Amino acid sequence: MSTLEAGEARGADTGRAAITLYGYASSGNCHKPRLLLEQLGRPYRWVDVDSPGGATRTAEFLARNPNGKVPVLERADGAVLVESNAMLVWLAEGTPYLPADAWQRAQALSWLFFEQYSHEPYIAVARFVRGWTPAGSSRRAELPALQARGHAALAVMERHLGAQPWFTGPAYGIADIALSAYTAVAADGGFDLAGYPALRDWLARVAATPGYRPLPAPTAEAAARLAAAD
Ligand SMILES: N[C@@H](CCC(=O)N[C@@H](CS)C(=O)NCC(=O)O)C(=O)O
User: Fold this and answer.
1) What is the distance in A from the centroid of ligand 1 to the CA of 74?
2) If you take atom 2 of ligand 1, which residue's CA is the nearest one?
3) Domains delineated in the chain
4) Residues 77-95 pLDDT 10s
5) Taking a C-beta distance cutoff of 8 angstroms, is the pair 174, 98 a contact?
6) 222: Cβ contacts below 8 Å, ≥ 6 apart
7) The whole model's pTM is what?
């Protein structure tokens, strides 16, 4: 049993887990709250949702998230939270993963917004186009622009990490979780990290944090497309 499966079992052991996460396992956005739950040692129930197969567009799913996207976090009382980085903030409240100081908290939020506006739309989307669309898809034409914008984001991160080990303050926290999710698999989007030494060192530090779990491997079909992509 993998540790992620063990996490599910921990949740199941508690009867009705306090938290249910609906997600697609090899999605970086879905992995972010799951990784934090693992690192916090909190029980949760994981429900697989085949988002590339359209499972986020059913009436049942849209009742939970009208925006039709995973991850979705549901509490035992049925209350729902969407947006992966909002989940990180909520889950990290009162823990070392979110600074208590207002300025440092705002710095963490700043990097979460950067991730969603300047990083994920290019690095995650390039990965999606290469791995989850057919080889002949017209979406492949988007790749040069996605890669140019993705490299711009990586350069911002490299510059920041040249001067400090983590994204906010002296310790690993939710900004590191948010930004590492897709950076760790940037090669899937066609990004070569060879020119980003500080970033590669940071990824190694992230992978060495207690309870860290890498993003689960994509399906065989997506893995084959990624291996064959230009
Ligand atoms: N900003 C959202 C993005 C979520 C997102 O893009 N989810 C994708 C999977 S990574 C999805 O559910 N796509 C299915 C769809 O749009 O139908 C977050 O961070 O939670």
Assistant:
1) 16
2) 83
3) 3-92 (3.40.30.10), 102-228 (1.20.1050.10)
4) 999 999 999 999 999 999 9
5) yes
6) 26, 52, 131, 132
7) 0.94
